[in-house]
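Pasting as-is:
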Amino acid sequence: MYQQSTTNSFSTQHNDVCQGDMADAYELGSAMAREQLSAEDKKLLEDIGDDTVIVVPGTYDHIHQVLKSLKIPFKTVQQSELLTYPLRPADQTVYVNCATAHRLRQFVNDGGQLITTDWALKNVLEVAFGEFVRHNGQMTRDEVVGVQVNDPTNPIVAGFLPASQHVDPQWWLESSSYPIEIVNAQQVRVLIKSNELNQKYKSHAVLVTFDCGKGNVIHMISHFYLQRSETRNERHAMSTEQFAIDMNVSEEIKSKAKQMNNLNYAQVQSTATSSAFIYNQLADRLKKKSNYS
């Protein structure tokens, strides 16, 4: 899958993740991310309702596969059902995967949380939340960029901090992903940025959030589902066991990492950070709900 350089210079190696490897990477990455959670957050996630998370499926993202890997229950609602489906703004989070959506502005105004990816920037957010963000007019290539935590105080990106101690985590950009233009810089918070993305496409925003009415919106460029990573330097090409050591996980997880020699450091770093984001985002949402109830 990769070759480690024996010289001081390290050439980038591309790692296309097959289905079996993706499942292994998310199994290991989610175990690492879950171990980092507080006891309170673990309990909240264990008690989550069957329809607390709603997924509106699109063509290109596969958030349902990621949620299954993380053992997060969810309900699938088709686009055609969304207009009449009885959403509960008080406690539900809706994931919209690159699909045209209706009725979601009111859902957020009433206290709901909306999470969108990639093309939903133009099809959903520009239409319903255009005063906050929009597509900057460019489109990416199929590539991987390094990312950095821009707001370390925000709990939903806490998982990126231990994972990025030694080398930047990576973010896969699908061909024709939409870079984000921030319209309202005072209200839109950039949680994850990429200096490399900014150099190429004049936008540093990778993961953004903003409040609207009583609710909240989170948007990210590209998708949750890992399809490619890169071994850009010697650390990215190291073993999953080395990443487990860097994350200071339990001996049980280290042993599991050692057995997964079909994967490398970069792949599990990517799945561990995306797993941590989902866990932390849902736990933060559930804590806020319990505080208000």
